[in-house]
């Protein structure tokens, strides 16, 4: 029931452009993802950023936000995600 509610609620709000945001750490395949999406019509709308000095989960429960470097990277990633979502909603 939840998925049918979401599929009903989201289409009027979010465009179906296919754009994505890929915020990765050093071990994640950012280049592979970008090479694949660069071939798509929505490529110009995609956002990519590698956080080479962070571990998996740095924006969430695994992140030690008392560490200034982690806090700065997590804040940057969250800001990027927020901006990306705002662009999607405003283009709907």
List keywords for this structure.
about 90 residues; alpha+beta; two-stranded parallel sheet; flat
Protein model, in words:
With 92 residues, the chain is α+β, with helices and mostly antiparallel strands. It has one domain (2-90). The protein has three helices and two strands, in the order αβαβα. The protein has helices spanning 2-9, 30-37, 68-90; strands spanning 21-25, 47-51. Strands 1-2 form a two-stranded parallel ribbon. Strand 1 (21-25), helix 2 (30-37) and strand 2 form a beta-alpha-beta unit. Mean pLDDT is 80; it is low at 1-14.
Brief digest:
The chain is 42% helix and 11% strand. By secondary structure, it is an alpha+beta fold. The longest helix has 23 residues, at 68-90.
Mean pLDDT: 80
Task: Please write the string of helix (H) and strand (E) elements.
Answer: HEHEH
- The helix content is 40-55%
Q: How many structural domains does the protein architecture include?
A: 1
Shape: flat
Largest beta sheet: strand ordering: 1-2
**Spatial gap, N to C terminus:** 25 Å
Unreliable residue stretches? 1-14
Strand-pairing-aware structural class: alpha+beta
For the largest beta-sheet, the strand count, sense and barrel status come to: 2 strands, parallel
Gyration radius from CA atoms, angstroms: 15 Å
Instruction: Report the count of strand segments.
Output: 2
Q: Determine the number of helices (DSSP H or I, runs of at least 4 residues).
A: 3
Q: Estimate the strand proportion.
A: 5-15%
């Amino acid at each position: 029931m939840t998925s049918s509610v979401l599929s009903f609620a989201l289409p009027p709000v979010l465009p179906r452009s296919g754009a994505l945001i890929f915020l990765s750490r050093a071990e994640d395949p950012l280049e592979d993802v970008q090479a694949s999406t660069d071939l798509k019509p929505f490529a110009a709308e995609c956002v990519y950023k590698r956080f080479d000095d962070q571990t998996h989960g740095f924006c969430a429960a695994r992140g030690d936000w008392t560490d200034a470097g982690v806090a700065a990277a997590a804040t940057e990633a969250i800001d990027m995600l927020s901006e990306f979502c705002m662009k999607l909603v405003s283009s709907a």
